[in-house]
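Much of what follows relies on a compact textual record of a protein's fold. The record below shows the convention in full:
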Amino acid sequence: MPGIVIVGVQWGDEGKGKATDLLGERTEWVVKFNGGNNAGHTVVIGDEKYALHLLPSGILSPGVTPVIGNGVVVDLAVLFEELEALEARGVDTSKLKLSSSAHIITHAHRTLDKVQERFLGKRQIGTTGRGIGPTYADKISRVGIRVQDLFDESILRQKVEGALEQKNHLLVKVFNRRDITVDEIVDDLLSYAERVRPMVCDTGLLLDEALKRGDVVVFEGGQATMLDIDHGTYPFVTSSTATAAGAASGSGVGPNRLDRIVGIVKAYTTRVGAGPFPTELFDENGEWLAKQGHEFGTTTGRARRVGWYDAPITRYATRINGITDLVLTKLDVLTGLEEIPVCVAYDVNGERFDEVPVNQSDFHHATPILENFPGWSEDITGARTFDELPQNARDYVLALEEISGTRISVIGVGPGRDQVIVRHDLID
């Protein structure tokens, strides 16, 4: 079973990095296939905590070749900042491979991202301001700059000129900002050319050869299903394909290479940024969950919105992605609650919806129909088998498994690398 896709089930921040890291010792390759440095993974190894934004989590596992695929947008300054930070802590980063077809984030993209978001006022989407959306917009408009363009200055200059022409009109005439010169973009990009050259290759070919050999390849998704550009809570979404389908297109391998789809889901729900969130809590329970779960964004530092577990969303994500296994994270955060509500369906103006409504307006007005489960007070962070969990914790997991429609194969019981319970092996 060489091709394993890891995707977020909710709105991100579910713990995908930890799941990737869990597989790391038996994995030869880890591929990031979408997004950019607009999302982060926190991985805890012993007493060390690593916050990754652009790099695949597999870079922390010896023996793994980390790959940044063609579906990713790359800020070269961030790339080398992260590499240097890891190298300073003794992490070997020499195996990193970067697709020659990945698109590059420039200063112009970051500037546009910030001014356009401010221009929206009350209609703001909640972008991170890191230039992700404008870079994908250029990609779709066929005026994007790719990694391979760094190695031909003439082509690079022509592409930058074409890309800046419209942007400068917007910046100067609409947003009252100064224009951006071709030279400042070209000079900045060329300063990275020789540093990035050794890691650039045809990553699709490399991965295809690895899969043919039977190597285990993990495709690590950024963001999550409910932020997917097609299947998420549009327009409050990211600009890339964050579902399992993106693993094939964003890495250059055939979809028949994807053998297992692993969905990562928290034992409750969070999201960052604007948009509908049916189970969101505005009371002391929400404050308590946010504090217990340390719910602040790895990349942005923004406080996450917090709510109860949403079973319809999990069922929706299972269908969209073809999920075969769930990894349930942060079960330990719920310890101490006398009662744990779970959303089993929605009420929209008096009508019951057992699945995610097809219309965004209905979803925006949905209120959760909750079922309550008894909590537990015992410390579960030391549990390593399912039977070591308190009865109420086991019952909660089994209930989530039944109403979510997918088996829960791994349970996270703490932030540490080894604080997991494996019920079903994700590789065998």
